[in-house]
Specification:
Elements: H1 2-42, E1 47-62, E2 68-82, H2 94-98, H3 102-105, H4 114-143, E3 145-148, E4 152-155, H5 160-164, E5 171-175, E6 178-179, H6 183-191, E7 198-204, E8 207-213, E9 216-221, E10 227-232, E11 235-237, E12 244-247, H7 251-277, H8 289-300, H9 304-322, H10 330-343, H11 349-378
Antiparallel strand pairs: 1-2, 3-12, 4-11, 5-6, 5-7, 7-8, 9-10
Helix pairs in contact: 1-4, 1-8, 1-9, 4-7, 4-9, 4-10, 7-9
Length: about 375
């Protein structure tokens, strides 16, 4: 009985991690691949397979266009295989292309113009950004959003804000000339500028005062025990009910919010990648499937809206990751197509083959590194 109870507990505990993870990842992968599929079909390219996951097929069906839609055993991605592709990474199958008749070649991916191929490849990451906009907008429209006035309730001792001369009761009006409407605007502006002086205008007893503050990076812990590094200045927001409130948005306002939120996440992700490359951010914040599963499980306890917002965040990250100029990824294909468009001819098959091998090695290296970070974090 005790053994059976232990197995039941392990099973239920596993579901707490697996179900939110699969929900989030399936949404992101499906829309990414759907972007490739829809634009490819629009460009007259025949799709042979549309798969969520890799490896052996679990279930599937054929549609009237001859595409095999399937769910595969390894749920860590997906692919659309077009006619003329050698594999799921859209490496051209030149031997198969040479053996096709004219009618078959008309629907083959490698036989299409460079513009149609580029549009089909770019559609995947673009679909990720559109998905993020729709999710952010939809959650904001349904739930509204909590906003707070940029009024200082307290200034932490020996913080950058204290050194700059901030006082309780100050209302931040602008940062480097950028208007600050909500306290979250201030947090966003500061979090993107570690160790960078910021000129702030504050309203103090009816008088505008200018203060210069330099954010300092600090390791913090969220409510789930996850550690992260973020630039801070040491201002504490007021928790007055009249200052923090729920703001309902119209459909148009929600759409605008979705666009701005997606743009902000994109900027912060690109900035993070740049800081990792230059050594200003630690690489231990890069996570893989295990960390995504952990965070998905944690966020799901907050509510369905929070889980959807996590899906939007990850959708932007997946979109940007796929745009990296690495062969095997969408960005690498686009780099090859850019060369072809400029030179009027594609790279040689040998060069492309070497590029894809290097790209595969880089992708595998990144996956191993992410797994290592995940396991180190658990330990």
């Amino acid at each position: 009985m005790e053994f059976a109870g232990g197995l039941a507990g392990l099973w239920s505990g596993g579901l707490v991690y697996v179900v939110p993870f699969l929900f989030v990842l399936t949404i992101i992968v499906f829309f990414h691949e759907l972007g490739h599929y829809l634009v490819g079909r629009w460009c007259g390219i025949k799709a042979l397979a549309f798969s969520i996951g890799f490896g052996p097929e679990l279930i599937g069906f054929n549609d009237r266009h001859g595409t095999r839609w399937k769910l595969s055993a390894v749920p860590l991605g997906g692919y659309v295989k077009f006619l003329g592709d050698e594999n799921a990474a859209s490496v051209p199958d030149h031997e198969a292309l040479a053996s096709m008749d004219e009618a078959e070649r008309a629907g083959a991916f490698p036989a299409k113009s460079v513009g149609r191929r580029a549009a089909t490849v770019a559609a995947g990451p673009i679909a990720n950004f559109i998905l993020a906009i729709v999710i952010f907008a939809g959650v904001a429209f349904v739930n509204g959003r909590v906003v707070g006035d940029p009024v200082v309730a307290d200034v932490r001792a020996e913080s950058p804000a204290a050194e700059a001369g901030f006082q309780p009761g100050d209302r931040v009006v602008s940062a480097d000339g950028e208007p600050i409407r909500y306290f979250s605007d201030l947090q966003r502006y500061v979090s993107a500028r570690p160790d960078t002086p910021i000129l702030m205008a504050v309203e103090r007893q009816g008088v505008t005062v200018e203060l210069t503050v330099t954010p300092k990076s600090e390791t913090q812990t969220d409510g789930f025990g996850n550690s992260f590094t973020v630039p801070v200045i040491g201002l504490v927001a007021t928790n007055d009910g009249s200052s923090f409130r729920l703001e309902q948005l119209s459909l148009l306002e929600s759409l605008g919010y979705g666009v701005s939120q997606t743009w902000y996440v994109t900027e912060r992700t690109v900035d993070f990648i740049g800081q990792v490359i230059t050594g200003r951010q630690s690489t231990d914040q890069i996570g893989g499937p295990i960390r995504i599963a952990q965070v998905s499980s944690q966020v799901s306890t907050i509510g369905f809206g929070a889980l959807l917002n996590l899906a939007a965040l990850l959708s932007v990250s997946i979109g940007l990751l796929n745009l990296l100029p690495i062969p095997m990824l969408d960005g690498g294909h686009l780099l090859f197509y850019a060369y072809e468009a400029v030179r009027g001819r594609p790279l040689s098959e040998r060069v492309q083959e070497i590029g894809f091998r290097i790209g595969l090695a880089l992708v595998m290296l990144l996956m191993v590194f992410a797994f290592w970070n995940d396991i180190s974090g658990l330990v």
